[in-house]
Write a structure and sequence with these properties.
With about 180 residues, the protein is mainly alpha-helical. Helix content is about 70%, strand content about 0%.
């Protein structure tokens, strides 16, 4: 996940540097706005692809954590004396408060959700979407204030859509916690 995100951040950084250099040469003219629209659109596409993959990787991580819990539970059933040596839970419930990944979203764990890689990418994507909308507004001749207002609205809508996508993905892809059978 970090490699993909690093590439996205690299593309975004390159976009900003290219625009800064171009703006100096063109005195932030129409050419800069046109080129910015293209670069912002490409960066946003890469950002959206990165976000979708990060959300999917979070599910894969959840499956691995649940699988490891199932293995620990099996070990506990075979050799109960091992319990003091386990530092993580041996109960594979996704609803468990001790599960590091995949726990249901609630207001209580909102701060943790905002610091994930997916959330950072979502925030950058939302800013990019708003910036692209403002840029397009300026290209069609809008004054600064209306262009910024449109960009702000688009950024907020984008943020909400990112959250809805991630929460819907999480609801539709709950990791299996079966294996309630006793290991002999």
């Amino acid at each position: 996940m970090f490699g993909r995100t690093t590439i996205f951040i690299g593309v975004l950084s390159g976009t900003i540097i290219a625009l800064a250099l171009l703006a100096q040469v063109t005195r932030f003219g129409y050419e800069t706005l046109t080129f910015a629209a293209v670069l912002f659109a490409v960066s946003l596409f890469i950002g959206l692809a990165t976000f979708v993959r990060c959300v999917a990787i979070n599910l894969e991580d959840t499956r691995w954590v649940v699988g490891m819990s199932l293995l620990r539970r099996a070990y506990m059933q075979i050799v109960p004396e091992l319990e003091p040596f386990f530092v993580a839970s041996h109960e594979p419930s996704v609803e468990s408060r001790t599960l590091g990944y995949g726990s249901p979203q609630s207001f209580g764990n909102l701060a943790n959700s905002l610091t994930t890689t997916s959330s950072v990418v979502a925030a950058l994507n939302s800013v990019l979407a708003g910036t692209l909308a403002s840029d397009l507004g300026a290209l069609v001749g809008l004054a600064l204030t209306p262009a910024l207002a449109i960009g702000t609205r688009v950024a907020l809508v984008s943020a909400v859509l990112h959250v809805l996508y991630a929460s819907r993905f999480r609801r539709r892809h709950v990791p299996a916690t079966r294996s309630s059978q006793r290991v002999a």
